[in-house]
């Protein structure tokens, strides 16, 4: 059981860390494009974020964070399916990041008389590729070993036939006593009478008879 929990924790950490890194990287500047125009027009600089160059990166990050929760919530075949989904998210993350590194920033789309140059900040897509490798390993671990792992909340499940614990008694308040008095008045009883002073019922067969020593 200790080994299973360790594997579960490793897979969860891999999904959560990689998902957070993908979301963070998607908002960073991956490339700076400079457009040189005809004089006397000054050059124009444009920054491109990871989400604009590789939209699958933040999408994969959201999916991985959701998968980290799903791994805990499901069991059996459902957990295997989540593992496959995690592996697919890792593949999409790697493919999108490698595409940017291999020339995803195209500086050639310029107007006549303009020249575009792109300066790629390779650190972010490289980090996403490394995160994708971690995700692929985590997804394979979930798909292969996930059936043996414990599920969230199993120790809190009630065993069959277990009796429910009685609810603790609530202290009576003045409002409760006032309600009891009104109910007694509705029944025609005296709410000020002490129940201990009430006479016991008469002998069987004589409902009109009073207590011993007081018969007429």
UniProtKB/TrEMBL annotation:
Which protein are we looking at?
A: Trp biosynthesis-associated membrane protein
Asked if the keyword Membrane belongs to this entry, the reply reads yes
Superkingdom: Bacteria
Alphabetically sorted, this entry's keywords are:
Membrane, Transmembrane, Transmembrane helix
Identify the stretch(es) annotated as Disordered. 156-216
Q: Where is the composition biased (Basic and acidic residues)?
A: 171-190
Ranges annotated as spanning the membrane:
55-74, 81-102, 122-144
- The biased composition feature labelled Low complexity covers 205-216
């Amino acid at each position: 059981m200790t080994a299973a929990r360790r594997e579960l924790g490793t897979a969860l950490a891999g999904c959560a860390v990689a998902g957070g890194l993908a979301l963070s990287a998607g908002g960073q500047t991956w490339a700076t494009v400079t457009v040189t125009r005809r004089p006397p027009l000054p050059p124009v600089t444009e920054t491109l974020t990871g989400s604009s160059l590789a939209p699958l990166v933040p999408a994969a990050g959201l999916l991985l964070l959701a998968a980290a929760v799903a791994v805990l919530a499901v069991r059996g075949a459902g957990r295997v399916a989540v593992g496959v989904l995690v592996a697919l998210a890792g593949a999409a993350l790697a493919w999108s990041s490698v595409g940017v590194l291999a020339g995803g920033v195209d500086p050639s789309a310029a107007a006549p008389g303009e020249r575009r140059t792109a300066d790629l900040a390779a650190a972010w897509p490289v980090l996403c590729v490394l995160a994708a490798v971690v995700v692929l390993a985590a997804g394979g671990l979930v798909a292969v070993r996930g059936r043996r792992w414990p599920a969230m909340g199993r120790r809190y499940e009630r065993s069959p036939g277990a009796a429910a614990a009685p609810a603790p008694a609530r202290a009576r308040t003045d409002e409760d006593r006032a309600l009891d008095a009104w109910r007694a008045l509705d029944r025609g009883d005296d709410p000020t009478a002490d129940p201990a002073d009430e006479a016991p019922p008469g002998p069987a067969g004589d409902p009109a008879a009073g207590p011993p020593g007081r018969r007429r």
